[in-house]
Amino acid sequence: MISNCTGVILAGGLATRFSGQKKALIQVGGKRILDRLYAIYRGLFEEIILVANDPSTYAAWDLAVVSDIFDCRSSLTGLHAGLFYLRTPYAFFAACDAPFIRAELIRGLIDAIRPGDDVVIPQTDAGFQPLCAVYSKRCLAPVERLLNQGEFRIRSFFDRVRVHPVPETRLRELDPELLSFLNINTPEDLCLAEEILARQKPLSEENAS
């Protein structure tokens, strides 16, 4: 188990493209996305935090549920809440709509932490992946300053801390198809996720025979 890092799941999105349905509870391959994430997290972290503004929805899971401290709802307010409540020096953050995050990728990012690093973040050809990254507790103060200024973009505080990008070449060693970064934002994304699982199932059945 990783003792110096907390696993944080952000579940505060409005999910407007899913008619308000909570994305953490959307099923991919007959299994809720939150169940998929929780299965990965509980094998890695001693402390797990879920940031959500409707805690009673998640009472069935064995994790700490906290709410945003700032009223406005954004990924940055969720990041702030997770940093505020965690008891370890670092936290790995993921959005609740990422069904394919790999434990190997999480471990790889945590193992990449160097002394003084504040953010260890994947950098793919598409850019930074801020909702699948490691943040130091030291990020709390600059994040809070941004929120007090009405700024809600996560990357806006990166110039105030030490950021360690992890390049795509290394990421593909840990997750060859980079599926850890697939988020279910639209019904089309959900269809894609189901197609990915359908492709993987025959392979796993062939390997088992």
Write the layout of secondary structure elements.
Layout: E1 5-10, E2 27-28, E3 31-32, H1 33-42, E4 48-51, E5 64-66, H2 75-85, E6 90-95, H3 103-111, E7 119-124, E8 127-128, E9 132-136, H4 140-148, E10 163-167, H5 168-174, H6 187-208
Parallel strand pairs: 1-4, 1-6, 4-5, 7-10
Antiparallel strand pairs: 2-3, 6-9, 7-8, 7-9
Describe this protein's structure.
The protein has one domain: Spore Coat Polysaccharide Biosynthesis Protein SpsA, Chain A. 33% of the residues lie in helices and 20% in strands. The chain has helices at residues 33-42, 75-85, 103-111, 140-148, 168-174, 187-208, and strands at 5-10, 27-28, 31-32, 48-51, 64-66, 90-95, 119-124, 127-128, 132-136, 163-167. Strands 1, 4, 5, 6, 7, 8, 9 and 10 form an eight-stranded mixed β-sheet that branches. A two-stranded antiparallel sheet has the order 2-3. A hairpin with a 2-residue loop joins β7 (119-124) and β8 (127-128). α2 (75-85) crosses α4. 35% of the residues are buried. Mean pLDDT is 91; it is low at 203-209.
What would you say about this model in short?
This protein is an alpha/beta fold. Helix content is 33%, strand content 20%. Strands 1, 4, 5, 6, 7, 8, 9 and 10 form an 8-stranded mixed sheet that branches. It has a two-stranded antiparallel ribbon with strand order 2-3.
